[in-house]
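Escalation from tier 1.

The customer reports that the assembly of two entities below gives different structure tokens on two consecutive runs. Tier 1 could not reproduce it. I'm attaching the input and our single run for tier 2 to review.
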Amino acid sequence: MLFAYILRRMVWAVPLLFAVSLIAFALISAPPGDYITSFAATLSQSGDIVDQARLDALRERYGLDQPFIVQYFQWITGVVQGDFGISFEWQQPVGQLIWERMALSVTLALSTLVFTWAVALPIGIYSAVRKYSIGDYIFTTIGFIGLATPNFLFALVLMYVAVAYFGADVSGLFSQQYQDAPWSFAKLVDLAKHIWIPVVILGTSATASLVRVMRANLLDELHRPYVTTARAKGLSEWRLILKYPVRIAINPFVSTIGWAFPQLISGAVITAFVLSLPTAGPLMLQALLAQDMYLAGAFILLLCCLSVVGMLVSDILLAVIDPRIRFR
Amino acid sequence: MTAEIDPRASSQSPEDFASQWRLIWFAFRRHRLAMTGVVIVLLFYFVGAFAEILAPYDPNSASSKDIYHPPQMVHFIDYDDDNGWSFGPYVVAMNAERDPFTLQTTYTESPDEKIYLDFFAKGQPYELWGIIPMERHFLTTEDPNQRFFLIGADRLGRDMLSRTIYGTRISMSIGLIGVSMSLLLGLILGGISGYWGGRVDMLIQRVVELVISLPTIPIWLGLSAALPQDWSPITRYFAITIILSLVAWTELARVVRGRFLALRTEDFVTAARLDGCRPRRVIFRHIMPSLVSHIIASVSLAVPVMIIAETSLSFLGLGLTPPTISWGVLLKEAQNVRTMSQAPWLFAPGAAVCIAVLALNFLGDGLRDAADPYAQDNN
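Tier 1 run:
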């Protein structure tokens, strides 16, 4: 039964991924003109002679004169085989440019998710069990402020505070000496030292909404008869709460991977730009502005796929822990 | 005919014979945070509506001798030398000094020099809403040749307060217009989906799922990068609004569909259908009224999302662009650490974003609780 559900869900992801790739390609071919036009503009700006024949040759080489569907088909067959095309701006295969950045993006998103859970779960339980206590009010207030602050603003303020009061630079993911160094244990430690700042910035709003969900759900459960029964039987309070109501209230936590993941990836683009992190966001932004279509397309496609996969994982996890879903 | 009085009807509490709207209002009024939210939100829209009057200066008038002028405090009571006092708001003038080596400008107060302010004094002429010519500002200097900066000036010596006030107009309105557009989309598609069900519902739900599973910011960035650069500010404004609402309608569509599905099987809807009402009448006359309160609540929660989205896009330089002034456009100026440590008051629009979003969230939460007939009454 569970297996059938997982299979069904995975089969459904295929047309979804197809649609996503179509959207990604439509987005990158939407701007009027193409890279060659902006390339020609740069050339003539710097005083070079623009050779029309050379432009046409370039256009033909990259297949930019073909109709949309043909271009899409060429692109997607390449992508399936692992070839994302060529970045016009960097004059390098896109594949060489993106993977390290994508890996860092995924690391960032996953660490943020773990942080969010680790913080939201205890606070949510505390807020529900000690409803209207001072602690509850403090967490609720912080949560509201966290929800209302755009990620990039939070990042800016944090950077300002760090520079103005501590004289520290909090941007980037690595110290200078590790920036171009090959991967080693020391570099990993260095990453861990830097990553918590973007993690906190990204995780705050998701944590805030998770705490609210957890608190509301647990409040609904705490007055159920089974809780009273368990209490009457003499179970210790904390064990009782953790064992029964929390288990039911925790469902939305799992389903949040579904919506939190796209949100984290989204939010990471801007935060990464502000903190100049070596993740996918800033390079994608640059590529979009320069009309470097294959590079931008690869990032959009991969980020979208990442959220589709996140959604898939959350649905499967949810089915595993909650039998009501897989039998529907 | 003897009138039999129902004993339940005899109690005189106003809640017993109030309409649904009055009930919502009663519940809402008790929600203190939500009431505060309403006041603040109305204030923001008021500021946006009368930006020209409230702003001391034209937001684009630059002044080369006031670059990064720090904020000044308004003093309301003016003491003169022989201990007498009078009411007269003023600010203490600041003089710029340039360090000959670092070329950095520092401002120092010169306590003897007072710049007097006046309410509704004549200042730079302007046209209210682009039509009514006026020249009085809510608070400006008595001497039109002097300038004052309540929250500082930017890199061209433009008054940040005026710019933030004008930004309020664009940022707050983009939230409203964007939400109305996504409401329209959400109502139509969610309504169709929930009312007819079956295959249409299936199709629309798949589209909704697709849109929800996409990370919004890359999509928004891609779409806005696709806008031609040579569009006029107003065209760009509407294009950005449409882009924002293209992604934001799904949540509303889901709410509407859910309510439609629930209401479709209600007795009163079946009765209307059996009476021969056509779908349009069933939808607008019978189903819609019980949907409205939910929709209003979701709308008020969608506005802050829009505002944050616009701010983020403009901040990255892909949303609105100068000469349009929005909070995001203003925050773009505060992008690097050097500027920030030199002129932290460039964050002011950010504070405006936070307060507006917070107030809208409180308002939306209160509305949602008040509109829910099954909400437990905590009082």
